[in-house]
Amino acid sequence: MAYITGEDLEYIRGEFQKLPRKVTLKLFREEGTPTGDLLAELMGELAAIEPEKVSLEIAGPEEAEGLGIDKLPALVLQGDGEDYGVRFFGIPSGYEFASLLEAIQDVATGTAELEEKVAEALAGLREPVHIQVFVTPTCPYCPFAVRTAHRFAIASDLIRSDMVMAPDFPELSERYEVMAVPTVVINEAVRFEGAIPEEEFAAKVLEAVGA
Q1: What is the pLDDT of residues 148-196, one digit of tens each?
Q2: Is the bond preceding 73 in cis, omega lying within 30 degrees of 0?
Q3: Most buried residue among 78, 161, 171, 175 by CB atoms closer than 10 A?
Q4: pLDDT tens-digit profile of 95-152?
């Protein structure tokens, strides 16, 4: 069964052909699990659209710790082998499929379009930042929060940003008391709900590191 067809397929092909660098989708999964197998199938289809621009790599457990992979399934996006801290945990379905396509485009350029104030604030970071954005497939506001977090990761080597599909990780969602989405958790220190402007989001990042 094909998941990407018709106009969607042609649109994605056109966007992938414009990518300035090759993007690798590094997939971590446990074989034989419905979520892991479905993600592998979907990413296989995506990579097959324009293989010279987007490729799929099945990663082994020996790579997981170094890339901060602590749950499965997971995707790490790399541009020409360079890691930008962009992560997807669970299946980026529904509205989050758009987040994945946007992340591929951003990683391919290796740059993040941010307001000047925000870029300056992130450049001043001196310690690691871990952003988790909990989402659901049906939330129309979640992609904005996810893309903001991913752009922050691209802008700073000290930031790692995760999209976390809340229904795929119920125990984690319960731990962080995810009652609405998007819910954003930064360094276990700051938590907020909603898709907020990037300047406010950056302020939350600075708050999480005590800056």
Answers
A1: 999 999 999 999 999 999 999 999 999 999 999 999 999 999 999 999 9
A2: yes
A3: 161
A4: 999 999 999 999 999 999 999 999 999 999 999 999 999 999 999 999 999 999 999 9
The helix (H) or strand (E) run that includes residue 98 is: helix 96-109
Strand partners, 133: 163, 184
Residues 6+ apart with CB under 8 A from 6: none
The full set of domains in the chain, from first to last, is 6-82+97-108 (3.40.30.10), 116-208 (3.40.30.10)
Helix axes 198-208, 116-123, angle to 10 degrees: 10
pLDDT in tens, 84-98: 999 999 999 999 999
CA distances from 150 to 37, 86, 190 (A): 25, 6, 17
Q: Which residues, in sequence order, are CB contacts of 120 under 8 Å at separation 6+?
A: none
For residue 5, which of 53, 45, 37 has the smallest C-alpha distance?
Answer: 45
